[in-house]
Amino acid sequence: MIPFIFPCRPALKSGALAASFFLFAFVPLFAQTRPDALQAFRDGDFERSIAICRSEIAENPRNLEAHVVIGWSLVAMGRLDEARTYTLAGRNISRYDVRLILTLGEIAFSQGRNVEALQHFQDFINLAPDGPRKDRVYYLLGEVYMRMGRFRHADIALTTAVHRVPGNAAWWTRLAYARENAGDLSAAVVAYERAISLNSQLGDAQRGLERVRQTLARQ
């Protein structure tokens, strides 16, 4: 049994908070109509952002931007169930808004609802083929596929991610792990070696490379 290698994550108190950094990347890339709520989010004043958005939604229940921003702020605070409720309500206003779809994918991923996360990430890719941070979405797809034991699908997704961001050593390590579990050991060696060339201190990559080399030597 190959030991599971957990993905590298920022040093935050929960995976839910980690998701907020990904969502934050979308803030300057979409036009916002209520700069005060958005500015509060940018400033890290999430409670104020939430209060502003709630006031805007009470005034106009179909205020799309308020639903987007309140979702981001609630995710940043780790209040994922509330974030999901508001984001789903936003999709009733604009079903194909990729910001909402991505937020739902991140929430589902953080809560371990893999099938739902997979669907949202695939929808995002289909709706925004040239969208920002698509590399990260492919990485998350790879992680979801690995949770499901679908290692060849994970290989494809993670290969796409490292093609877009070739300097991410952690992603190369995860790609190598997917290939190792898929039985493609020679390709796993290549990916582990690439990860180590980018960051020689990655223990997971070093251990993985040694493990695969030992397996190949016994064959």
What does this structure look like?
- It is built from twelve helices and no strands.
- With 219 residues, the protein is mainly α.
- It folds into two domains: 115 residues, Tetratricopeptide repeat domain (Serine Threonine Protein Phosphatase 5, Tetratricopeptide repeat); 87 residues, Tetratricopeptide repeat domain (Serine Threonine Protein Phosphatase 5, Tetratricopeptide repeat, Alpha Horseshoe), CATH 1.25.40.
- It starts with 14 loop residues before the first helix and ends with a helix.
- The N terminus is likely disordered.
Give the helices and strands, then pairings.
Blueprint: H1 15-24, H2 35-42, H3 46-59, H4 64-76, H5 80-93, H6 98-110, H7 114-127, H8 134-147, H9 151-164, H10 169-182, H11 185-198, H12 203-218
Helix pairs in contact: 1-4, 1-6, 2-3, 3-4, 4-5, 4-6, 5-6, 6-7, 7-8, 8-9, 8-10, 9-10, 10-11, 10-12, 11-12
Keywords, separated by commas or semicolons:
elongated, Serine Threonine Protein Phosphatase 5, Tetratricopeptide repeat, mainly alpha
Outline of the structure:
Helices cover 72% and strands 0% of the residues. By secondary structure, it is mainly alpha-helical.
Which fold name fills CATH's third level, the topology of the largest domain?
A: Serine Threonine Protein Phosphatase 5, Tetratricopeptide repeat
- Number of spatially distinct domains: 2
| Shape, per Cα inertia axes | elongated
- Reported CATH architecture of the largest domain: Alpha Horseshoe
Rounded to the nearest angstrom, the radius of gyration is 19 Å
Separation of termini? 17 Å
CATH-defined superfamily of the largest domain: Tetratricopeptide repeat domain
N-to-C order of helices and strands: HHHHHHHHHHHH
